[in-house]
TrEMBL record:
<feature type="domain" description="UvrD-like helicase ATP-binding">
    <location>
        <begin position="43"/>
        <end position="371"/>
    </location>
</feature>
<keyword id="KW-0347">Helicase</keyword>
<feature type="region of interest" description="Disordered">
    <location>
        <begin position="1"/>
        <end position="44"/>
    </location>
</feature>
<dbReference type="InterPro" id="IPR014017">
    <property type="entry name" value="DNA_helicase_UvrD-like_C"/>
</dbReference>
<feature type="binding site">
    <location>
        <begin position="64"/>
        <end position="71"/>
    </location>
    <ligand>
        <name>ATP</name>
    </ligand>
</feature>
<dbReference type="InterPro" id="IPR027417">
    <property type="entry name" value="P-loop_NTPase"/>
</dbReference>
<feature type="compositionally biased region" description="Polar residues">
    <location>
        <begin position="1"/>
        <end position="14"/>
    </location>
</feature>
<dbReference type="InterPro" id="IPR014016">
    <property type="entry name" value="UvrD-like_ATP-bd"/>
</dbReference>
<feature type="domain" description="UvrD-like helicase C-terminal">
    <location>
        <begin position="372"/>
        <end position="641"/>
    </location>
</feature>
<feature type="region of interest" description="Disordered">
    <location>
        <begin position="281"/>
        <end position="316"/>
    </location>
</feature>
<keyword id="KW-0413">Isomerase</keyword>
<keyword id="KW-0378">Hydrolase</keyword>
<keyword id="KW-0547">Nucleotide-binding</keyword>
<feature type="compositionally biased region" description="Low complexity">
    <location>
        <begin position="301"/>
        <end position="310"/>
    </location>
</feature>
<protein>
    <recommendedName>
        <fullName>DNA 3'-5' helicase</fullName>
        <ecNumber>5.6.2.4</ecNumber>
    </recommendedName>
</protein>
<dbReference type="Pfam" id="PF00580">
    <property type="entry name" value="UvrD-helicase"/>
</dbReference>
<dbReference type="InterPro" id="IPR000212">
    <property type="entry name" value="DNA_helicase_UvrD/REP"/>
</dbReference>
DNA sequence: CAAAAATGTATTTTT
DNA sequence: TACATTTTTG
């Protein structure tokens, strides 16, 4: 009894169904009565866009630069397919990367085509479509169709248990790290058997593979999946059951993929399985793949399997042609590939024409979003990348009124926030909507300072992304209760809340439940029930356990009868969970209660507890209220796909952006990805773009002197304007930036990065050495002269960050010393009681010395911890 | 078993 | 620094 049948979804149903045109046309008709000529939606498309919409047959790759109307093409294309009766809504597979994108496509298609969207069950993220497939064919993957989807937290806890079971040192082999590795393998489509020997050895003294296997087995017994499985299981099913695959080959007449540059190997395999229809095919494809050094994925081999059966019904006859034709349309932009770190393979997009011979490639290069200045800046920047297909975006002729891209220096991050805040207030006074303003940061810790500032200014802001609703402690607890009620065998959820609120069920008791569960082969909840009736357990925990078990069985019964929202309320009430927070006097308790209410409220939108749980597992974010006029604050990554009238990009400093870690781990490729991220950031802006950098930033609680991002140097001068801030300390930025006669040598920097790999942590010798190198580079490239009196900080042309008088720090010296351990080197640099001077904090005396970290009592600024490199003897 | 203290550890992005 | 997690203490 495999999952719900197609007919439930009203999709492709039978040989005698109406002709496709029928339904689609009717749907259209309902939505937009008679006058809606089929070509209506085509109006306003430029020739390339139109071509992308109308080339419905065969493989199509649309290379859509930023702001060129990518989503419009995608949605119009679907509308076109429907309107011309080429397919039923249910015969279109449209995959996106994020829920946001899926949602947007649904709405936009909806407005084009009306209710037909209702019948588009296969529009969604890779993962949500994966779940759908898997629910139907769960038994082929050894699961029941009511399997649960584990989130990262569940996974980590599970792995931790496995590591403990193996008696491994948890500190040496952290669960998070291993779950990361598993994630990576799954992104590559590798099961336990497929991982490389090296990978297998890399963890836990060679137990990597064994652990991975154990993990998968555990998932199976738990009847659970992690995110990766949502893709991998379907892939495996398709490979092992050609009949199932064929079913989907018949079903999906058109495949559309959004953000193709972000697909990882697993997603790529998945797509190829679905897209490459079995017909007589030469093996050259497969050869190509291996010849080019790609992993010989089994997709290609298994593909070649049975030839299309031509025997069946009229449908086979109709589709015989189409089945060989791969109507796949991938839309993407190699310049916006920013998820390489999580397994995305830009290569997928670069290789498209080889994968799908005869593909039509359409470039969308006309930008409808940004001014010529912004576009000019972005294009010039991205041109520094080598690995790209190369597009040339263009726009209308520049309007002399258009503002240039602003670059502004600040002293530290606090000032940066102040400057941005002031600029926003100015804009607001001129009638600028806050909703049209965004601040895009590289890393989320940067947000705090802006939030602080906006709070004091009373400026509305909204954080997008960030810590997500469903990841909050109280929500996860509540969800765990619900999960156990919905499926009594969800051990992970059970374990999470047996002792919440505190019932005196500690480690010992839980272990006992665990053991019983193992021994008897029953879920923990059941085991708890057994235990509560036996006398192997002390009276106190026994009573508590009894109550828990009784609670759950009562709730489970109510599941059938009581509306799920009421049940949810009852559960939280009777379990004492809400009471727990009511009694909690801490500052966050009221907020948590509020969140719980919100949770119940959001459940109303779903028809059952189960469907709600599914939603939460897949869509981890909660919607925000759009009514409020507020500045958006988010990371660059979550800004992809959005656009704003005005964009602020703070933190353009080496080490932060490009991020040190990207450089360390990714080398040149890492740098290029950072540059693409910068490109994404720049191209979010329609009209006003402000870049900021500061010379002092606190990282890990230590003050670091920073230098401007190399990306600033990669912007074309003619599109950029440097703002002189009248009231700020000025920093070294403006003067240097403006008069840069010898631009920052990117190659030089690359060399440094390549020849002396930084280590992964800021506190390490590698990082410090990097700092030293950069100090050097800064002097050379930003026109700083040593020998200036330090008093001159604050005037435009002066060096404020480095150099002058800081005798104890010479790059070379540091190089030599820092090979040693960071905490033990140069013990003699300063000693307690020394008078020192710091660029930011002024004079002070050393209160404590820990290797190169000094605790200093500053005369004005109070006690701070700083690296010795940033102070000099007073 | 729970609360307090100490310790450690990571601070990029997320379906 | 700041947070989470572990160890110690009551």
């Amino acid at each position: 009894m495999s999952a719900p049948s197609d007919s439930a979804r009203g999709s492709f149903s039978g040989p005698n169904g109406p002709r496709p045109g029928g339904i689609a046309a009717r749907a259209l008709g309902r939505a937009t009565p008679a006058e809606s000529a089929p070509s209506d939606y085509l109006r306003g498309l430029n020739p390339e866009q139109r071509q992308a919409v109308e080339t419905t047959e065969g493989p199509v790759l649309v290379l859509a630069g930023a702001g060129t109307g990518k989503t419009r093409v995608l949605t119009t294309r679907i509308a076109h397919i429907l309107a011309t009766g080429r397919a039923f809504p249910s015969q279109i597979l449209a995959v996106t990367f994020t829920n946001k994108a899926a949602r947007e496509m649904k709405t936009r298609i909806g407005s084009l085509v009306g209710e037909a969207v209702e019948g588009m069950p296969w529009l969604g993220t890779f993962h949500s479509i994966g779940v759908k497939l898997l629910r139907r064919h769960a038994e082929l993957a050894g699961l029941r169709s009511d399997f649960t989807i584990l989130d990262t937290d569940d996974v980590n806890r599970l792995i931790k248990q496995l590591i403990q079971a193996e008696n491994l040192d948890e500190k040496r082999w952290p669960a998070r790290q291993f779950s990361g590795m598993i994630d990576g393998w799954k992104n590559k489509g590798q099961g336990p058997k497929d991982i490389s020997e090296g990978d297998a050895r890399a963890f836990a003294n060679g137990k990597g593979r064994q652990l991975y296997t154990a993990y998968q087995e555990r998932l199976k017994t738990l009847n659970a999946c992690d995110f990766g499985d949502l893709l991998l299981h379907p892939i495996r099913i398709f490979r092992e059951h050609p009949d199932v695959l064929r079913e989907y080959h018949r079903k999906f007449k058109y495949i559309l993929v959004d953000e193709y540059q972000d697909t990882n190997t697993a997603q790529y395999m998945w797509l190829r399985l679905l897209a490459q229809r079995p017909k007589e095919r030469d093996t050259s494809d497969a050869k190509n793949l291996t010849a080019e050094g790609r992993k010989p994925d089994r997709a290609s081999a298994d593909q070649a399997a049975p030839a299309e059966a031509s025997e069946q019904s009229e449908r086979a006859a109709v589709s015989a042609n189409q089945l060989q034709q791969i109507n796949i349309c991938c839309v993407g932009d190699d310049d916006q590939s920013i998820y390489g770190w999580r397994g995305a393979e830009v290569d997928n997009i670069l290789r498209f024409e080889k994968d799908f011979p005869g593909a039509t490639v359409i470039k969308l290069e006309r930008n409808y979003r940004s001014t010529a200045h912004i576009l000019g800046a972005a294009s010039h920047l991205i041109a520094h990348n080598e690995d790209r297909l190369g597009k040339t975006l263009f726009t209308e002729a520049p309007d002399p009124e258009d503002p240039k891209v602003n670059v502004q220096a600040g002293w530290d991050s606090e000032e940066e926030a102040r400057i941005v805040g002031e600029t926003i207030e100015t804009l607001q006074r001129r009638g600028h909507k806050l909703n049209d303003i965004a601040i895009l940061v590289r890393a989320s810790f940067q947000m705090r300072e802006f939030e602080d500032r906006f709070v004091t200014l009373g400026l509305n802001y909204r954080v997008i992304g960030g810590p997500r609703f469903y990841e909050r402690l109280e929500i996860r607890d509540a969800m765990a209760f619900f999960r156990v009620v919905a499926s009594a065998s969800d051990d992970l959820a059970f374990e999470r809340i047996v002792n919440v609120p505190k019932r005196g069920l500690g480690e010992a008791t839980i272990r006992q439940i665990h053991d019983t569960s193992r021994a008897m082969g029953i879920p923990m909840l059941e085991a708890a029930g057994e235990l509560a009736e036996s006398d192997e357990i002390k009276p106190k925990p026994r009573a508590a356990l009894r109550e828990v078990v009784a609670n759950f069985s009562r709730w489970q019964k109510l599941l059938e009868t009581l509306p799920h929202t009421e049940l949810a309320e009852q559960i939280l009430e009777e379990s004492g969970y809400t009471a727990m927070w009511k009694n909690d006097r801490s500052a966050e308790a009221p907020g948590r209660l509020e969140n719980l209410k919100e949770l119940i409220r959001s459940m109303e939108d779903y028809e059952s507890l189960r469907s709600f749980l599914e939603h939460v597992a897949l869509v981890m974010d909660a919607e925000q209220n759009e009514d409020l006029d507020a500045v958006s604050l988010m990371t660059l990554h979550s800004a992809k796909g959005l656009e704003f009238e005005t964009v602020f990009l703070p933190g353009w400093e080496e080490g932060l952006f490009p991020h040190q870690r990207a450089l360390d781990e990714g080398g040149r490729a890492g740098l290029e990805e950072e540059r693409r991220l910068a490109y994404v950031g720049l191209t979010r802006a329609k009209r006003n773009l402000y870049l900021n950098f500061v010379s002092n930033r606190r990282i890990h609680g230590l003050w670091q002197t920073t230098i401007p991002s190399r990306f600033l140097d990669e912007l074309p001068e003619k599109h950029v304007e440097v703002i002189e801030s009248s009231n700020s300390y000025g920093g070294y930025g403006s003067g240097g930036f403006k008069g840069r006669h010898n631009p920052y040598g990117a190659s030089r920097f690359d060399k440094a990065a390549a020849s002396q790999p930084f280590s992964s942590s800021y506190g390490t010798p590698g990082w410090q050495r990097a700092q030293a190198n950069r100090t050097d580079a800064t002097r050379n490239n930003w026109g700083m002269r040593s020998g200036h009196a330090v008093e001159r900080i604050g005037y435009g042309e002066t060096d404020s960050g480095f150099g002058a008088g800081r005798g104890s720090i010479k790059a070379r010296t540091i190089e030599g010393e820092l090979v040693a351990k960071s905490v033990s080197n140069e013990p003699a640099a300063f000693k307690v009681g020394d008078r020192v001077f710091h660029q930011k904090f002024g004079n002070g005396s050393v209160a404590a010395v820990e290797g190169n970290k000094l605790t200093i009592d500053f005369d004005r600024a109070g006690q701070k911890r700083v690296l010795d490199g940033f102070v000099s003897a007073a």
